[in-house]
Structure formats: C-alpha cells, structure tokens
Amino acid sequence: MAGQSAQRGAGMAEAEAKWRRAMKALAIPADILEAAPESPYGFPAAIWGRPTEPIDSPSRRRAVEVLPQAGSVLDVGAGGGAASLALTPCAAHIVAVDENEALLEAFAANAEAAAVGHSTIVGRWPDVAPRAPGADVAVCHHVFYNALDLGGFARALTDHSRRRVVVELTAAHPLDGFNDLWRHFHGIDRPHGPNADDAVAVLAESGIEVQSELSERRSMWSDAPRSALVGFVRRRLCLGPECDPDIDALIGDAPESSPRHMVTLWWPGGAR
Ligand SMILES: C[S@@+](CC[C@H](N)C(=O)[O-])C[C@H]1O[C@@H](n2cnc3c(N)ncnc32)[C@H](O)[C@@H]1O
Question: Is 245 among the domain residues?
C-alpha cells in the first residue's frame, strides 16, 4: 500500500493513465456533437428504469452470500435498481445513488412494488459519497465505464461497504458494438473503449485486489421496448429520427441474439 501511495504521489500510475486515455478517446468528434439534434448522453428510464426479474447471476450470488438477513445495500448508479432489488428479500433497506433523478423515481416505484425499505441520493458518485451511509454490501452494476477517475470511484465504494463490494460490468466496452453504425452513418472509425481487464488493472493499482467471475447472458437491452432501444442508439449516434428505420434494420436481432459476456468483480468492504 505504501508503494501504491508513493506511486500515486509521483504521478498518475500506468493503468490509470491508460484507462483515462481510452475513455477520453471515446469523445464524440466536436463537429458531430455540435450538429447533434439531442444530447447523446444519458440513460433513458424506458430502458434502465424498468423493474426487472432478479437474475440468478454470479453478481447476485456474491452479494447474497455475505448479506445478513434484513441487511442494508448501497446501489451506486442504481438506475431502476436491477442490481439491488435482485437482493430482496435478504435486503431490508436499499440506498440508491444516481445522478439521474428520473431513474431514481423509477427505482423508488420499483422498490415500493417490491415492498423493500429504500431511500435515494441524487448526484454523482463519488462526489455525493460523503452523504451516503455505510451499508453491509455495496453493489455497482454497469457504471464503471462512466467513471474517468475509476480508482477514486472504487475506493469510495470500499469505504461505504462493511462486508463486500460487488461490481458487474461487460467484458468489453458496451459502446464497442456501435462502431459499425458510426462507420455506416458518419463514415468514421471509432476506437474501442477500455475493457474489464483494464478496470481490474486500475483497481489493483489503487490497492484493490479483486476476485472475478465471467458469465454470459442476453443483452440487458434485449427485452427493452424496440422504440426505446432505437431512440437510444439514434441519440448516441447524434442522428435524427429520420434515421430510425435504418437503425432498426441495422440493429436487427443483435440485442436478442448476441450474448453478452459479463464480469463480476468483488472485494472486501472497508467500512466499520
Ligand atoms: C447503464 S445504467 C445501469 C443501471 C443499473 N445499475 C443496472 O444495472 O441496470 C448506468 C447508471 O449509472 C448512472 N451513473 C453513471 N455515472 C454515474 C455517477 N458517476 N454517479 C452516479 N450515477 C451514475 C446513470 O445515470 C445510470 O442510471
């Protein structure tokens, strides 16, 4: 640990610098961004706010095996709560953190329906971490690829978890699959984003040794309403609605037919 702090003090460590370079390389070219009819960023509630059936995934199992009866869960980047609501009935109280208020409203409705105690914190992790209580388990699914300072983001998760942090992310960056569409509509080649191995390297550099498990399942988007899915892709690509039929045809059955490789990471919590 002392070596790692010294490394941080001496400048940015290698894995972190690589992560940041790869994240920044994903910036949308300025001319395309300026001409975009709508903001390409964000996560629509029609896709990420829906109540979902708890999936018996490695991520769920790793959280449940250390969650006490009537335990507490902190869900960072909760969206509609897919990660934490899968932990009921063991979880008695869930604190959901998200920068998107509409998604937290969807989370609250889903938590009501599941009859689980809940509260919400609107804001960006780790900026709002000082307002978040410690929990038995912290979960964070499909948020890492939004964190430029991944080491600081993960350390704040450790600090808010007493027993375990469980993170899920796709093995490859989720926007890699959009590269053919960028070439088709804009004629540009986009870089691949950082991947799960890059994330693990950043965590190791931050003093966090993780355990990991690979699994496979259908895309999280596979059962989203088609119009929401097409609209999401259209916005990410900075296109207008006149492109929807083309997008629809080009996506085809990929969301249902291409399995996603998921990575579950877990490590001990550090909160008292
Ligand atoms: C892909 S969705 C995943 C939602 C949910 N965890 C799931 O697995 O279905 C990413 C979520 O993280 C939120 N988010 C992204 N970066 C965040 C940050 N730094 N702090 C808080 N929320 C963030 C987004 O608003 C969005 O709700």
Answer: no
